[in-house]
Design goal:
Elements lengths: L12 E11 L2 E10 L2 E8 H14 L18 H21 L6 H6 L2 H4 L1 H22 L3 E3 L1 H12 L14 H10 L2 E5 L17 E2 L8 E5 L6 E2 L10 E5 L6 H4 L9 E3 L10 E3 L7 E3 L20 E3 L19 E3 L12 H4 L4 E3 L19 E3 L12 H4 L6 E3 L11 H7 L9 E2 L6 H34 L14 H6 L8
Parallel strand pairs: 4-5, 5-7, 6-8, 7-9, 9-12, 10-11, 12-13, 13-14, 14-15, 15-16, 16-17, 17-18
Antiparallel strand pairs: 1-2, 2-3
Helix pairs in contact: 5-6, 5-7, 11-12
């Protein structure tokens, strides 16, 4: 369900007791609550209604006779249950009419407002932060919020209401705003499907992040990126951005303004073309994790993250690697579990990276990796590499120390490990293959393979040289019939004989 625009007034609230069920020896009443577009279900037995009524009559001016009385005999009979169901519905409806705005805390808890209703959610969060907010900030730990909570806070701020309309200072919205202004580490974790017993689709709710003024790190999961407002306000402080299962493009996260300004350029870049907007860069961002999304293209938005050193785009739908040449500071890149079939001239886009993961793609060739001279760690597991000759393309990389080729067709070649290690020549001892340190026995075998390879190369050179000599000494033209029987040595020694008549 997609929520409507933010309301200007309190939405209509309705409550109905729609049924009942027998649990063990008592009856539970099923209550449907409606708050605007949001609906949810609550279940209570009669004793819960009685406890609620006791609290309300003690704290508020509620008529004690409003609640139907207890029944001892035949309390679970069908006729009594049906009659009581109607009486309890009337009881709850009367209470909502008596308290149309500032719902008493006992009633709000009874109807699960703290789980599903905007005022109840923000009041519960404010009270939590009133008691523990300062302690959480001092501990410097990651604080988790749900999209529904942020949606509720955003709505509350847009409503023309005091920050504490309930009269309870502990539930003042100010506690939330003070906390969000100072928070450094935030995790927003949504859900797929309805929340609890409600019809609320949490991953489609809109919320605004501009209330966070000091964030260094944020992780967003299971939200729709286009519904996340206020991301540009984080550009001056954020160092780590992680977003999962939330977007189909990098642009919607890094440059949400692009939907309004089709022609834009990063600040500080001179462009010969007319632009409609100059977009500020992410000044502090060094880590970007956009794994587990549906991204098919590395678009121009990476121009706005020039300081990024760690880039994770694993578990997406990439079929090519573009635009990474704009990221001059890249050190670690994860492109695993995409749809890459080749990576031509990777050094022109990946520069001086040290760690590269290409696991879980469809790579068959490695020629494009031959000039990644700074590479230290390379993961090529779970690809389609079948030819030993392809390893020669990375065998000359001077810094490579860790190589993972597991789960490739090449692994079924007899003596696979030693044949791969032999491709690294004198550096074989420095290479850790498939997470296993090279053994002395393997190195001995490698030396034998190297010797055999050198002998083969020497033999090939000799054969080539003999062939060349033979070709060089072959006469350039066929001799005449009178001298056809003369030996070549004589002709060579007496060149003048060939002209004697």
């Amino acid at each position: 369900m997609e929520p409507g625009p933010f309301p200007e007034e309190v939405p209509d609230r309705k409550v109905r007791v729609v049924g009942s069920e027998l649990v063990e020896s008592y009856t539970v009443y099923i209550i449907d609550v409606t708050d605007g577009l949001h609906k949810w279900t609550v279940k209570h037995r009669y004793s819960d209604f009685y406890d609620l009524h006791e609290k309300l009559t003690a704290e508020k001016k509620v008529d004690r006779r409003l609640l139907p009385p207890k029944k001892i005999l035949g309390k679970n009979s069908k006729s009594l249950v049906e009659r009581r169901q109607k009486e309890l519905e009337l009881y709850l409806q009367t209470l909502l009419q008596q308290f149309p705005e500032a719902t008493p805390t006992p009633l709000a808890c009874f109807l699960h407002f703290h789980l599903y209703e905007i005022n109840g959610i923000t009041a519960a969060l404010a009270e939590e932060l009133f008691h523990k907010g300062e302690q959480l900030l001092q501990a410097g730990e990651v604080f988790t919020l749900r999209p529904l909570q942020l949606y509720s806070v955003t709505q509350q701020l847009r409503l023309a209401k005091p920050t504490c309309f309930t009269g309870d200072a502990k539930t003042d919205l100010g506690h939330i705003l003070d906390f969000t202004c100072r928070l450094r580490y935030l995790k927003i974790s949504g859900t797929r499907g309805p929340v609890g017993t409600s019809n609320i689709q949490e991953n489609s709710l809109s919320f605004d992040l501009s209330v966070f003024k000091s964030l260094l790190q944020i992780e967003i999961s299971d939200c729709i990126a286009q519904r996340v407002q206020g991301l540009p306000s984080l550009r001056s402080t954020l160092a780590t951005l992680s977003i999962h299962r939330s977007t189909e493009s990098m642009m919607s996260v890094l440059v949400p303004e692009a939907s309004e300004f089709p022609q834009w350029e990063p600040e500080g870049v001179e462009s010969g073309c007319p632009v409609t907007a100059v977009v500020p860069v992410w000044r502090q961002l060094t880590t970007l994790d956009m794994s587990h999304n549906c991204i098919s293209t590395i678009d121009d938005s990476v121009k706005l993250i020039p300081k990024v050193e760690f880039l994770d785009l694993s578990y997406n739908q990439l079929s090519s690697v573009e635009n990474l040449q704009h990221l001059y500071n890249l050190v670690h890149v994860d492109l695993s579990y995409n749809s890459l079939r080749s990576l031509e001239a990777a050094h022109t886009r990946l520069g001086n990276i040290k760690t590269l993961s290409l696991a879980g793609n469809q790579l068959e060739k490695l020629m494009g990796l031959s000039k990644l001279y700074s590479l230290v760690n390379l993961d090529l597991s779970h690809n389609q590499l079948a030819q030993l000759e392809e390893i020669r393309n990375i065998g000359a990389l001077p810094c490579l120390e860790k190589l993972n080729l597991s789960s490739n067709p090449i692994c079924i070649i007899p003596d696979y490990r030693t044949k791969v290690l032999a491709q690294f020549g004198d550096r074989a001892a420095e290479v850790c293959l498939d997470c296993k340190v090279t053994t002395e026995k393997e190195l001995d075998t490698v030396e034998v393979l190297k010797a055999i390879q050198k002998a083969k190369e020497a033999k090939d050179r000799m054969s080539h040289n003999d062939k060349k000599i033979s070709e060089d000494t072959k006469p350039s033209a066929a001799p005449s019939s009178s001298s056809s029987s003369s030996c070549p040595a004589q002709q060579s020694a007496c060149p003048s004989q060939g002209n004697h008549k």
